[in-house]
Amino acid sequence: MAAVGLGQAARTTPAGTLPANMVPHPREELFTVLVVDDHPLLREAIAARLLQMGAGTVHEAASMAEARARALATGPCDLAILDLGLPDGTGIELVTELRSQGWPRIVVLASSDDPYAVRAAFQAGAQAYLLKSASPMVVTDGVRRVLDGGVYADPSVAPVLAAGTRVPGTDNTPRELSGREVEVLQLVADGRSNKEIGEALNLSALTVKSHLSRIGRKLGTGDRAQMVALAMRAGVIR
């Protein structure tokens, strides 16, 4: 029943065996999932949990290379669950790739609660960050939240994520930045122009300018380089 290689069948829920109350609200049809993790036992446990939750098909991969091949073969699934510590690359890179290919929902599974990894995962486009040490109930809650269109952070990393949006301004007073403002600042740090930032985030150049103006007011400086420096020192962007 297991499936990792592209030539093998994926795990599927037998027709007619799924209780109606197990299908994630508001979806009425079975959902499809890609699980990427290099530990077979953990991958099997996650797949079994997803089938119990209402997954119709669970595709599996053990590496970046297998995940890319599987994604190319299947096209976007309803959900992807990705390990950050893959043997041939970083899971953050895979999050970015899948999002650019139209994958709508991505859950990151990690062994670390490192603040940079948590923020990087959400900035790359993940909707949830779960720890491998999490209880089955937490994993289920996180997946259901994402399937319903929400976002979720493991309870033990939620404070880290919240703290990561606070940047001391020029007067050293902590200022809260929104998720969109952090995204804009990261692209500024990457050397993007307002036009390029707008194209990357699907915003008008005027909206980007408005975001930068708000960031400047919050941080007490209109200088792009200083805004980026303040955010980097706070660990909000890389």
Automatic annotation (TrEMBL):
GO biological process annotation, one example: regulation of DNA-templated transcription
Name under which the protein is recorded: LuxR family two component transcriptional regulator
Keyword list, A-Z: DNA-binding, Phosphoprotein, Transcription, Transcription regulation
Keyword Membrane listed: no
SMART domains: HTH_LUXR, REC
InterPro entries with a match to the protein in the record: CheY-like_superfamily, NreC/VraR/RcsB-like_REC, Sig_transdc_resp-reg_C-effctor, Sig_transdc_resp-reg_receiver, Tscrpt_reg_LuxR_C
Location of the Response regulatory domain: 32-147
4-aspartylphosphate modification, residue list: 83
Entry's Gene Ontology molecular function annotations: DNA binding
Residue span, HTH luxR-type domain: 170-235
